[in-house]
Specification:
- This protein is an alpha/beta fold and about 350 residues long.
- The protein has one domain: Alpha-Beta Barrel (TIM Barrel).
- Helix content is about 45%, strand content about 15%.
- It has 17 helices and 10 strands.
- The strands form 2 sheets. An 8-stranded parallel β-barrel has the order 1-2-3-6-7-8-9-10, surrounded by 6 helices.
- α11 links the parallel β7 and β8.
- α11 runs parallel beside α14, α14 crosses α15 and α15 runs parallel beside α17.
- It starts with a helix and ends in a 7-residue tail after the last helix.
């Protein structure tokens, strides 16, 4: 298994697989493992039913009982338009094929919209954990705007048998304060009904992107977004993997500390991602990184590279959609399995 991973990584293999993190030590992190729920969540205020739902999530798919998760998310029909998302493979206009891909791909859960999951709930909700994404940014208003609005309520998720609910907050946007309040209430209701919570923890502000650098993927800014996300009791944080740093200093706003850059992070991608984990209460809330858009031939390498960085940083897994469903199903299954192989490979250790 490790040989195949090294082959896929190519010239990046040594840089990623041999790196030793000298920023925040792995020994102080709450790392994923078979006992993660007992060790980390049982002492919390989560109800017995919520712990059962988390157990269903971590006990499903090829990564069952490892503490790691592989989730298939398909809400792009709203977020990016159905045509843009599914024209490359029209099979996935049918929601049943989305769920089939998640099952055949060995995923821990399938995350999608009220309509997608509701259309096949009685057939599949007992076969794979359902994660309902409850708010979206619709892409038909002209001119296009960016605001997460509610498309479903928490009771609907509970009634169709979902084990968890998810939502997006655009931290840094004008709408973020309202979104924080809405999602806080939503997550409280979800926990009250015994479901876990996943936050799509994204930054969005045109000022965060300069001509030279896109600070939407800066470790310091995304780290602070993660810290806000776990404050409202997100059990799992979904975040874009960082590729840069120094957002606070470059944009000259907010507050930071020089030790964030000298002691707690470095330019290495594993160390940048480690800082994201640190801001998830040192790993008490799991960090799953997003797989990003499909770019064709490089998708397999990009997905495996992202998984290696996430695992070695102390993350909990990967949530990858477009790279998997914008290709023939057999290839999508293969890509999901390649991601999962990283978390199954004992040779891929925590840095």
């Amino acid at each position: 298994m490790i040989g195949k991973i090294q082959e896929i990584l190519g010239p990046d293999a040594n840089t990623l697989l041999a790196h030793e993190c000298k920023t925040v030590a792995k020994e102080v992190l709450h790392l994923p493992g078979p006992d993660f729920i007992d060790r980390v969540w049982t002492p919390s205020d989560r109800s017995a039913r919520t712990l059962m739902s988390l157990s269903q999530l971590t006990g499903s798919g090829r990564l069952a009982r490892t503490g790691y998760v592989s989730i298939l998310p398909v809400d792009q029909g709203i977020e990016h338009s159905a045509g843009a998302s599914f024209a490359p493979n029209p099979l996935y206009f049918d929601p049943e094929n989305i769920v089939k891909l998640a099952i055949e791909g060995g995923c821990n859960a399938v995350a999608s919209t009220l309509g997608v999951l509701g259309s096949v709930a009685r057939k599949y909700a007992h076969k794979i954990p359902f994660l309902l994404k409850s708010n979206h940014n619709e892409f038909l208003s002209y001119p296009n705007a960016f605001d997460q609005i509610m498309f479903a309520n928490i009771r609907q998720a509970f009634d169709m048998g979902c084990t968890g609910v998810g939502a997006t907050i655009y931290f840094g946007s004008e709408e973020s304060k309202r979104q924080i309040q809405e999602v806080t209430e939503m997550f409280h209701q979800a926990h009250d009904l015994g479901m876990y919570t996943v936050l799509w923890c994204y930054l969005r502000n045109p000022a965060f992107k300069t001509k030279e650098v896109d600070y939407h993927v800066a470790a310091d800014l995304t780290g602070q977004a993660n810290h806000l996300g776990v404050t409202i009791e997100a059990d799992i944080i979904k975040q874009k993997q960082p590729s840069t740093n120094n957002g606070f200093t470059a944009l000259n706003f907010g507050k930071t500390n020089k030790k964030v850059y000298s002691d707690l992070s470095s330019p290495h991608p594993i160390d940048l991602t480690r800082y994201q984990v640190v801001n998830c209460y040192m790993g008490r809330a799991g960090l799953i990184n997003s797989g990003g858009e499909s770019s064709g031939e490089s998708d397999l390498k990009d997905a495996v590279k992202t998984a290696v960085i996430n695992k070695r940083a102390g993350g909990m897994g990967l949530i990858s959609g477009r790279k998997a469903f914008q290709r023939p199903m057999a290839e999508g299954v293969g890509l999901l399995n390649a991601i999962q192989d990283v978390y199954l490979a004992k040779e891929v250790t925590i840095a």
